[in-house]
Amino acid sequence: MNVNIPKHIAIIMDGNGRWGKSRGLTRSEGHYAGAKAMEKVIDASIDLGVNVLTLYAFSSENWSRPKDEVNYLMRLPVKFFNQKLPEFMKRNCQIRISGNMDSLPNNTKDALNRAVEKTKNNDGLIVNFAFNYGGRDDILQAVCAVIKEVKKNNIDLETMDEAMFNRFLYTRDLPDPDLIIRTGGEKRVSNFLLWQSSMSELYFSDVYFPDFDERHLKEAIKGCRHMVTQ
Ligand code: IPE
Ligand code: IPE
Ligand code: MG
């Protein structure tokens, strides 16, 4: 493809439930199909030479869904990483998590931590899962962490700037996303990367996430004219 490849692509993977419903399946089956599509998008990102792929998998608002669905979404990373960790290793992917890990069930937290730990020395594509992530929560927890450091005299508030504040966010040292894609037809940001998206280009696709593939990803990239990081 004769276009600039965004260094950091972030995807709001929406439409799993409607995909299931449209096929006479359950919402959970839609989420399972979404996890399969995730693998394809990861492979395509590696082929295209993307550096960071952030995938919005569970928002801080998603706790308000029916209990069964929340339970399924909490079990999904356990199943996903149990099966896929060897492939992430083979593909040299580094897994990261952005989000509030404290309030997750232990087995979900363990599966996520294990994936991060096992892949931490890989230097290929960074796959950053936004899990139990909310943009407002991200900013608020960063502010609280800064206050703690100031109280301990580890930071002089006079020296605080955007670059320093960045290091307190869940995304830490990752570059801001150049391109944010939302699948599933809704045109909302749904509390995703509020600070980090200040200069990002937004791309909305009507395709439900389980149907989103390399072709759609390339289409989104083709339209991306503005790169945050040169
Ligand atoms: C997005 O798909 C995945 C998660 C929020 C976990 P949805 O579950 O929101 O699917 P729709 O939007 O209801 O179709
Ligand atoms: C955004 O989708 C969150 C994720 C993809 C994880 P939602 O379906 O949860 O967003 P709303 O509720 O339509 O805003
Ligand atoms: Mg949705």
From TrEMBL:
The active site is at D14, N62 (proton acceptor). InterPro entries: UPP_synth-like, UPP_synth-like_CS, UPP_synth-like_sf. Binds 2 magnesium ions per subunit. It holds the Pfam family Prenyltransf. Keywords: Magnesium, Metal-binding, Transferase. Its cofactor is Mg(2+). GO terms for molecular function: transferase activity. Substrate binds at residues 15-19, 27, 31, 59-61, 63, 65, 182, 188-190. The keyword Zinc-finger does not apply. Homodimer. Catalyzes the condensation of isopentenyl diphosphate (IPP) with allylic pyrophosphates generating different type of terpenoids. HAMAP family: ISPT (MF_01139). Belongs to the UPP synthase family. This is Isoprenyl transferase. It comes from Ornithinibacillus salinisoli. The lineage of its organism: Bacteria, Bacillati, Bacillota, Bacilli, Bacillales.
